[in-house]
Write a structure and sequence with these properties.
Blueprint lengths: L11 E8 L10 H18 L2 E7 L3 E8 L4 H19 L12 E5 L3 H11 L13 H10 L5 H4 L12 H4 L6 H14 L6 H9 L3 E2 L2 H27 L7 H12 L14 H13 L4 H8 L4 H12 L1
Parallel strand pairs: 4-5
Antiparallel strand pairs: 1-3, 1-4, 2-3
Helix pairs in contact: 1-2, 2-13, 10-11, 11-12, 11-13, 12-13
Length: 313
C-alpha cells in the first residue's frame, strides 16, 4: 500500500508523533531524554523550525512545530537519525529505533492549536496508572513532570530556550505572568473534563486537526499533490533514468581523491573519501545503507548512517 502523501507549505503547523518500533521504549533514563532535547534544539536551529511544545513519554513523543521553510521531513530526518545513532551506540543495539514514518497532521491555528497544546501537555497524567487517581494527585504529577514543556508554559520553571511559547500564550490575556497563570488554569481544567470534540477530530480525521473548512482545504491540497505526483511518475516511467554501477562510483570517487578504488573498501580511520563513497553509492547506484556497509567494510547500516551524518555535518 502506497504511503500517504505529506502536505508541506511555508508556515504549516504540525502535530508530530514518533513511536518506538513494536511499541518499545525510546527513552531509558534521564540521559536519553536530555540528549533527545539537545538534538531537538539543534535540529530546530539548523532547519529554522519553530518548536511550540513537546512531551516525551517512555515509548513515544509528541511535538508541535511550525515550519517557515516547509521542511518538516529534513528536520525530522536530522533529529531521528542523530538520536538513533546515539541511542544504539549507548545501549549497544542495532537497527531501527522508531516505528515507520513519524506521524504528522497539519493543525489549524488559534482554537485548535490551543486545544491540542492542552491535549499534548496532559499526556503524562492520562496514562493507565494515573487516569483514575484523585484530581489533586494528577495535578501534582502534571506540575512535577520534567519531560514536557508544560512547566515553562505554566510559569512553574524556566522555559527551554528552544521553545517558542509566544504564539500559544498570546491567546491568553494579560501580562506575561498572567498569561502563564491563565494557561495553567486552562490546561489543568482538562484534568476534570475531557475535550470530546478534539478527541473526535483526532480519532476521525486523517486530513488535519481543525474545523470542517480547514479539513476540506487540506483534502484539496492532498488531491492536487496526488495528481501532480501521478503525472511525474508517468513521465519518469517513460524516461527512466539509469543507475550508475557501484564499480563506476568507486572509480570516480577514487579518481577525485587520488586513491585506488580498492582503498575505498578497506577500513581507514577518519577517511572522508569512504564517507563520500557511501553517499554516492546511495545517491547514484541506488544502494541501501546495509549493502553499502557490506561493500565498504563499514559493518552495519547504522555505521554507514553515522558516517553520512558526520559527512553532512
Amino acid at each position: 500500500m502506497a504511503r500517504k502523501l505529506r502536505i508541506y507549505f511555508e508556515g504549516a503547523i504540525y502535530h508530530v508523533t514518533i513511536r518506538g518500533v513494536e511499541r518499545r521504549r525510546i527513552f531509558d533514563d534521564a540521559d536519553d531524554r536530555q540528549r533527545f532535547l539537545k538534538r531537538l534544539g539543534e535540529a530546530g536551529e539548523e532547519n529554522g523550525v519553530r518548536l511550540y511544545l513537546f512531551c516525551l513519554m517512555t515509548n513515544h513523543a509528541h511535538l508541535l512545530v511550525e515550519t517557515p521553510r516547509a521542511n518538516l521531513s529534513a528536520y525530522m530526518h536530522q533529529l531521528q537519525t542523530a538520536y538513533t545513532v546515539y541511542y544504539n551506540r549507548r545501549h549497544r543495539r542495532t537497527g531501527h529505533l522508531m516505528q515507520g514514518r513519524f506521524g504528522a497532521q497539519v493543525v489549524e491555528g488559534d482554537e485548535y492549536l490551543l486545544k491540542l497544546s492542552r491535549y499534548i501537555h496532559l499526556n503524562p497524567v492520562n496514562i493507565r496508572s494515573l487516569i483514575d487517581q484523585p484530581l489533586n494527585r494528577r495535578r501534582a504529577e502534571l506540575r512535577a513532570y520534567p519531560w514536557s514543556s508544560y512547566q515553562g508554559y505554566a510559569g512553574l520553571a524556566e522555559a527551554e530556550k528552544f521553545i517558542e511559547g509566544g504564539p500559544i500564550l498570546a491567546m491568553m490575556k494579560g501580562s506575561a505572568k498572567k498569561r502563564q497563570r491563565a494557561y495553567r488554569q486552562y490546561v489543568e481544567a482538562g484534568l476534570a473534563e475531557r475535550d470530546d470534540e478534539l478527541l473526535e477530530v483526532l480519532e476521525a480525521s486523517s486530513w488535519g486537526i481543525g474545523g470542517s473548512e480547514f479539513q476540506e482545504r487540506i483534502r484539496d491540497l492532498h488531491t492536487k499533490l496526488a495528481n501532480k505526483v501521478k503525472r511525474s511518475e508517468d513521465v519518469s516511467f517513460r524516461h527512466a533514468s539509469r543507475k550508475v554501477s557501484p564499480g563506476k562510483v568507486l572509480e570516480k570517487v577514487a579518481d577525485k581523491f587520488r586513491l585506488k578504488a580498492a582503498d575505498l573498501c578497506n577500513r581507514r580511520y577518519d577517511c572522508v573519501a569512504r564517507a563520500v563513497t557511501a553517499e554516492m553509492l546511495g545517491r547514484y547506484a541506488g544502494m541501501n545503507q546495509r549493502d553499502i556497509g557490506r561493500m565498504l567494510g563499514m559493518g552495519t547500516g547504522s555505521a554507514v548512517c553515522q558516517q553520512l551524518q558526520r559527512l553532512r555535518a
